[in-house]
Amino acid sequence: MKTGFTLAEVLITLGIIGIVAAMTLPTLIQKHQDKSDYTHLKKIYSQLLQATMSIEQEYGSIAEWNLVGDSPEDSKMIMERYKKYFKVIKTCDEDLSACLPDVIYKTTIGTDYVRWSTSSARSSFLLPDGAIVMFNSQGFSDTAFQIYVDLNGWRKPNQLGNDFFYFYYYKDQKAILPGGWYASEADKTANFKAGCLNNYGYYCTNWLLENGNKDYLRCKDLSYSGKTKCK
């Protein structure tokens, strides 16, 4: 009667287990990172929303601030008003290199996008958890300013839609909304494809907050009205 496994059988079994682990572990790690980034981004977004309510009670509707596009002075003023509602360990305005890494951030498809550390029109602050929050005055007819959030600061990958996310203050909505949010489903879908799925990354924020994943980095057949994850 056979009472145990031979060495060959044990080695084969271990080999199969190793292959299965090698195939599934990267997916599990990705899902864990997505969930962690979703939770982190949602927390910062919630803080921004609460801060906005308090700021507008003190200074009036942001939609009426008459901000000037790419104005270093206006960007700094916005940052100064928001920082009171965060635990900030450092602020940067004219010289962003003290807060942001001196690297070229990548788009969702891996191409070079921008070196934020050399921007003179933006102001930022650094949080204790390593996240960076940056402000840019726009003064457009529809948006007052942009907010950028780098979830892990100086650590890689420094990529739009991966660890770097956009928010906008919309004047008509009188609210900060994630990049990629649109009242029209058609506009939301079209801009997700153009500004997240196929390039750039500034319209990925709404997808992550709405669907809880960054699968737009892994497959290209996603849509708000259809497939919302790779598998």
What does this structure look like?
The protein is of the alpha+beta class and 231 residues long. It has one domain. Helices cover 37% and strands 16% of the residues. It is built from 4 helices and 8 strands; from the N terminus they run H-H-E-E-E-E-E-E-E-E-H-H. The strands form 2 sheets. The protein has a 6-stranded antiparallel beta sheet with strand order 1-4-5-6-7-8. A two-stranded antiparallel ribbon has the order 2-3. Strand 5 and strand 6 form a beta hairpin. The model has no long low-confidence stretch (mean pLDDT 91). It holds the Pfam family N_methyl.
State the gist of this model.
With 231 residues, the chain is α+β, with helices and mostly antiparallel strands. It has helices at residues 7-59, 72-83, 185-197, 205-211; strands at residues 90-92, 105-106, 112-114, 122-126, 132-137, 143-150, 164-170, 175-178. It has one domain (33-217).
List keywords for this structure.
4 helices; alpha+beta; 6-stranded antiparallel β-sheet; 16% strand
Uncertain regions: pLDDT < 50 for 5+ in a row? none
β-strand number: 8
- Strands in their spatial order, largest beta sheet: 1-4-5-6-7-8
Straight-line distance between termini = 45 Å
Number of domains: 1
Mean pLDDT: 91
The percentage helix is 25-40%
Gross morphology:
elongated
Order of helices and strands: HHEEEEEEEEHH
Q: Sheet with the most strands?
A: 6 strands, antiparallel
Which structural category do the helix and sheet elements fall into? alpha+beta
Number of helices: 4
- Please state the CA-atom Rg, rounded to the nearest Å: 21 Å
Strand content: 15-25%
